[in-house]
């Protein structure tokens, strides 16, 4: 018997099935700026309506949260996570997402699973007025075990050059406002899985995996609602490393983000992990978002308006003078 690609572990037909299952839904994310369709070697996106446009790009993955999804066979939220982790990053600079591409790698492709993951991206793209214009599915036997998947994404957005937000205008007296997260988002799951090895156990009246797999919150509508009404000095997406690592990224030299830890509304699942795992509060804040998915820095005069525009936002601190870029009181 002669060797074939299929005998080596790669089933091209399953890849074709995946495309068939997602093609129509992906097309629904396209707008008049998308000049071609799935199947081309490259995706074309026409830019118009801007005076001095700057493209802002971001890339990220889902990390070991995938393990929870794979073990429980719940794949619908993972695509949302992948998109959100990329799109929320570029939002920090005031950008609007234009288009998104995905990369899906696996040991043995299952078109049903792959389609479910991508369809989650489709729904997230629609929610953010973003086009899913391309992607790659790689079946890699020997590199991944059957049943293993990895997911990454790439998002490109746009902002007028004179409207870029980078934190450089932050000054002492500015207020720090928190936008709640929807849970762990897609960070810290190596520790989550160590403390919670049984995803099927009950937590607050339902299987634990339902809480763990709540998708990363999409902040596009919230952030741009604020940007239309208020001058924002800085935005930080609170991902891996928590407030400790992400807030200092937007703080100018000589200033400090003074945050009152007692004001942070920590989700019950994180308090349970802290207690059960014997994790210190400092370590928790250095690993997880602790219930704060985004931070907005605005002039004190604008703080109340932001809180009015965003029902669930709340103030957690202010900018002060200081050598350390963050002071989180616990």
TrEMBL record:
InterPro entries: PurM-like_C_dom, PurM-like_C_sf, PurM-like_N, PurM-like_N_sf, PurM_cligase. SUPFAM superfamilies: PurM C-terminal domain-like, PurM N-terminal domain-like. GO terms for molecular function: ATP binding; phosphoribosylamine-glycine ligase activity; phosphoribosylformylglycinamidine cyclo-ligase activity. It is found in: Cytoplasm. Residues 171-323 form the PurM-like C-terminal domain. It holds the Pfam family AIRS_C. Pathway: Purine metabolism; IMP biosynthesis via de novo pathway; 5-amino-1-(5-phospho-D-ribosyl)imidazole from N(2)-formyl-N(1)-(5-phospho-D-ribosyl)glycinamide: step 2/2. PANTHER family: TRIFUNCTIONAL PURINE BIOSYNTHETIC PROTEIN ADENOSINE-3 (PTHR10520:SF12), TRIFUNCTIONAL PURINE BIOSYNTHETIC PROTEIN ADENOSINE-3-RELATED (PTHR10520). It catalyses: 2-formamido-N(1)-(5-O-phospho-beta-D-ribosyl)acetamidine + ATP = 5-amino-1-(5-phospho-beta-D-ribosyl)imidazole + ADP + phosphate + H(+). GO terms for biological process: 'de novo' IMP biosynthetic process; adenine biosynthetic process. It comes from the Bacteria. Signal peptide: none annotated. It comes from Chryseobacterium contaminans. Its EC number is 6.3.3.1. Belongs to the AIR synthase family. One of its GO terms (cellular component) is cytosol. This is Phosphoribosylformylglycinamidine cyclo-ligase. The keyword Flavoprotein does not apply. Keywords: ATP-binding, Cytoplasm, Ligase, Nucleotide-binding, Purine biosynthesis. Residues 54-159 form the PurM-like N-terminal domain. It is an enzyme of class 6 (ligase).
């Amino acid at each position: 018997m002669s060797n074939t690609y299929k005998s080596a572990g790669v089933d091209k037909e399953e890849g074709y099935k995946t495309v068939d299952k997602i093609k129509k839904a992906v097309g629904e994310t396209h707008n008049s700026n998308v000049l071609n369709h799935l199947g081309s070697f490259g995706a074309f996106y026409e830019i118009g309506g801007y005076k001095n446009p700057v493209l802002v790009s971001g890339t990220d993955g889902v990390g070991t949260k995938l393990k929870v999804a794979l073990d429980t066979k719940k794949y619908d939220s993972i695509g949302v996570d992948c998109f959100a982790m990329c799109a929320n990053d570029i939002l920090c600079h005031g950008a609007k997402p234009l288009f998104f591409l995905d990369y899906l790698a696996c040991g043995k492709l299952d078109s049903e699973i792959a389609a479910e993951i991508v369809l989650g991206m489709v729904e997230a793209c629609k929610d953010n007025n973003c086009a899913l214009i391309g992607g790659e599915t790689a079946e890699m036997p020997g590199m991944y075990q059957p049943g293993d998947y990895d997911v990454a994404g790439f998002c490109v957005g746009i902002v007028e050059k004179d409207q870029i937000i980078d934190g450089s205008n932050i000054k002492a007296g500015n207020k720090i406002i928190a936008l709640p997260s929807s849970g762990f988002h897609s960070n810290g799951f190596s520790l989550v899985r160590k403390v919670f090895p049984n995803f099927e156990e009950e937590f607050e009246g339902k299987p634990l995996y339902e809480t763990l797999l709540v998708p990363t919150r999409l902040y596009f509508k919230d952030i741009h609602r604020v940007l239309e009404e208020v001058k924002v000095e800085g935005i930080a997406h609170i991902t891996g490393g928590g407030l400790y690592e992400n807030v200092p990224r937007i703080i100018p030299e000589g200033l400090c983000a003074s945050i009152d830890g007692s004001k942070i509304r920590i989700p019950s699942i994180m308090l349970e992990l802290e207690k059960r795992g014997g994790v210190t509060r400092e370590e928790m804040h250095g690993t997880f978002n602790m219930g704060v998915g985004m931070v907005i820095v605005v002039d004190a005069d604008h703080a109340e308006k932001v809180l009015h525009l965003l029902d669930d936002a709340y103030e957690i601190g202010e900018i002060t003078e200081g050598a350390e870029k963050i002071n989180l009181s616990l």
